[in-house]
Amino acid sequence: MEDGSPLMVYSQQQRQALAARLPDTPVALGMSYGSPSLESAVDELLEQGVDHIVVLPLYPQYSCSTVAAVWDELGRILAKKRAIPGISFIRDYADDVDYIHALAASVRASFAVHGEPDLLLLSYHGIPQRYAQQGDTYPQRCRDTTRELVSALGLPPDRVMMTFQSRFGREPWLTPYTDETLKMLGEKGVKHIQVICPAFPPIAWRRWRRSRCRTGNLPRSRRPAI
């Protein structure tokens, strides 16, 4: 993209859209890996005098490798401060009604342009199987998203599949693998497949802008921030 990487462009657009919906609340963007960093986002908010920060990791489904890593980094950052703000940490939103509605709207928009497919494939980012065996709830949270999205769309179960992508290394990752599944479906003669990646929220950012912004549950403070 002319303005930079898609991840950065869409993340900044999400930040700007949220800031427009919350004109009295400072909104900052920070990344676990890259720039702007999570630490720079925290410092930006503290410099504006906030005393309570709501941290929203943009990972819809909890995993120790993503959401918990943000928590760990946040703790490292705050450990260096003499005075720390109040913190509210949103663990995940895998089955949040507005998130599901945003995904469903994105799918319906695709169906309207390309027609209804023979199969809708939900491809999630993968994690090593040993993480799940050690208690990571990520696979279940992916299933929760899939269940709610299928219900919202009213699709029969035989027209939906859930797979995992982006594996690397030699150890087993969550299955079924997206690439192998697509090859198998082609060999079976499935002609029309549409793919959505529910673990990558920027894909639906335009729909999110239209979702209702619920601030009633935020902790009371003199100057909250997100």
TrEMBL record:
<keyword id="KW-0456">Lyase</keyword>
<keyword id="KW-0350">Heme biosynthesis</keyword>
<comment type="similarity">
    <text>Belongs to the ferrochelatase family.</text>
</comment>
<dbReference type="GO" id="GO:0005737">
    <property type="term" value="C:cytoplasm"/>
</dbReference>
<keyword id="KW-0963">Cytoplasm</keyword>
<keyword id="KW-0408">Iron</keyword>
<dbReference type="InterPro" id="IPR033644">
    <property type="entry name" value="Ferrochelatase_C"/>
</dbReference>
<comment type="pathway">
    <text>Porphyrin-containing compound metabolism; protoheme biosynthesis; protoheme from protoporphyrin-IX: step 1/1.</text>
</comment>
<dbReference type="InterPro" id="IPR019772">
    <property type="entry name" value="Ferrochelatase_AS"/>
</dbReference>
<dbReference type="GO" id="GO:0006783">
    <property type="term" value="P:heme biosynthetic process"/>
</dbReference>
<dbReference type="Pfam" id="PF00762">
    <property type="entry name" value="Ferrochelatase"/>
</dbReference>
<dbReference type="GO" id="GO:0004325">
    <property type="term" value="F:ferrochelatase activity"/>
</dbReference>
<dbReference type="InterPro" id="IPR001015">
    <property type="entry name" value="Ferrochelatase"/>
</dbReference>
<comment type="function">
    <text>Catalyzes the ferrous insertion into protoporphyrin IX.</text>
</comment>
<dbReference type="InterPro" id="IPR033659">
    <property type="entry name" value="Ferrochelatase_N"/>
</dbReference>
<dbReference type="GO" id="GO:0046872">
    <property type="term" value="F:metal ion binding"/>
</dbReference>
<protein>
    <recommendedName>
        <fullName>Ferrochelatase</fullName>
        <ecNumber>4.98.1.1</ecNumber>
    </recommendedName>
</protein>
<keyword id="KW-0627">Porphyrin biosynthesis</keyword>
<keyword id="KW-0479">Metal-binding</keyword>
